[in-house]
Amino acid sequence: MKKLTILLLLALPLFISSCDKNDDVASSNTEQINLNIDKTKLPGNLSITYKAEGTGDGKMTQLKYLDDKGVQQTVSSPSLPWTKTFSMAADSSVSMSATGTLSKGSLTITVNGTAQGTTFNLSDSQTRN
């Protein structure tokens, strides 16, 4: 009986450390994601739509974009999918960035614009399988 107790006491730390290692492997698969659409001048008067989307376990922790007055706006932990639309004048600029976490799925940001036959599309995304 004494030998069995000693064996169990020796095996317990091994069991506990093996559980911790599995937890570390799962959390190490999650990566910090940075998405960016550089500041870009618009070719004319456009209706602009900013979009943020995610699949799988992708989560955005912060979104930044230039509004219709050229002022940077920040959204913390946006619910996905997220959209914002503005009418913007010629010579205005658009910009969008996002940070988040992802282990399996995708995170995408896009800026789309349309007006009188003019189409404007920018995007950035990350995918993990």
What does the model show?
The chain is α+β, with helices and mostly antiparallel strands. Helices cover 21% and strands 57% of the residues. The protein has 1 helix and 8 strands. Strands 1-6-3-4 form a 4-stranded antiparallel β-sheet, with no helix packed on it. The protein has a 4-stranded antiparallel β-sheet with strand order 5-2-7-8, with no helix packed on it. It is elongated and about 45 Å long. The relative contact order is 0.26. Residues 14-26 have low confidence and may be disordered.
Write the layout of secondary structure elements.
Layout: H1 2-28, E1 31-41, E2 46-56, E3 59-66, E4 72-76, E5 82-88, E6 93-102, E7 105-115, E8 118-128
Antiparallel strand pairs: 1-6, 2-5, 2-7, 3-4, 3-6, 7-8
In which order are the strands of the major sheet placed? Answer: 1-6-3-4
**C-alpha-based Rg, rounded:** 23 Å
The share of residues in helices is: 10-25%
Return the average pLDDT rounded to an integer: 83
